[in-house]
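Everyone, study these two lines:
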Amino acid sequence: MFFNWHPLDHVQELSLRYGDLAERPAFAGEQERKAAWFAHRDRLLQHCSGGMRPAGWWSFESPVPRPRDRDYAQAALYEAELLTEREISELMSRWRRDFERAQDPGFTYCVGFAKPGNTTATWIQGDAARKALYQWSGIPKALLRKWTAERRRRDKTIRKLETAA
């Protein structure tokens, strides 16, 4: 059993922050990991910001399952209304900035080394680039639909005004 005075070793701390390595579990069992989480949760949660949550929180406290795509974790918390007002404000600002950046003419996105042995990065453009950035940024699907619709309405209005002039 873990108590607040029982320090975590490095591997145990990493387990509660990021998750266990399959080949090297940090605890003797799930009950021990859970006890360690609740003994150290306040300290571990202090290091969270911007909608991030440690693996221990996802394992033992989250009312929603952790998304398979870890980039979507913040969006899942947003959708479940589990973020603070401050986190929402931070994330909305970043998500909107990323969305608008993807609308720039000629927008490209680096997907890294697409094939083994590549020595130069691979860049994509157009809709594929936008989609990749949205996924990496973890923008909630509902916000993408809303902002895309707003942008289409705005572009349509601008085109009407240009043809009228």
